[in-house]
Amino acid sequence: QVQLVESGGGSVQPGGSLRLSCAASGFPFSSYWMFWVRQVPGKGLEWISSISAASTNTKYADSVKGRFIISRDNINNTLYLQMNMLKPDDSAIYFCAKGWGTSRQTLGAGTQVTVSS
Q1: Residues linked to residue 78 through DSSP beta bridges, in sequence order
Q2: What is the per-residue pLDDT for 101?
Q3: d(Cα 24, Cα 34) in Å, to the nearest integer?
Q4: Residue 42 burial (CB count, 10 A)
Q5: Order of strands across the sheet that contains 78-83
Q6: Span 53-81, mean pLDDT?
Q7: Strand partners, 79
Q8: pLDDT band at 21 (very low <50, low <70, confident <90, very high)
C-alpha cells in the first residue's frame, strides 16, 4: 500500500533553514504529482507546494513563495522541501501527500517544525 514517511523536522530559530524529506513507497512515485501540506494545531490543512511527476512544474502558496523549494528524486522515490528564511508562522506539522485534493489523497504521519527564538 501507499506509504509516505516524512523526516527532517525540528526546532530552528527565525531566519534559519530546514530540509524535509519524504520517502515514498507502494506506488509508481515517478508518475505522480506530489505535494507538501502543513497543519497548525486547531486549524485545517494548508497546501503549500506541488511538484509535477517530472519536476517540470512547481507551485507554491503565497505564504512560502520565494522561501521554500520543492524537489524530488525519482530514482530514490523521495520528495524534498527546502525551507529557508523560516518564520514563527511556519511552525506546524508538515505532511507530504499523494493525490492532494482528491478522494484518494494520502498523507504521511508528518514531521513537526518549530520556529522560535
Answers
A1: 23, 73
A2: 87
A3: 10
A4: 5
A5: 3-7, 18-25, 78-83, 68-73
A6: 98
A7: 22, 72
A8: very high
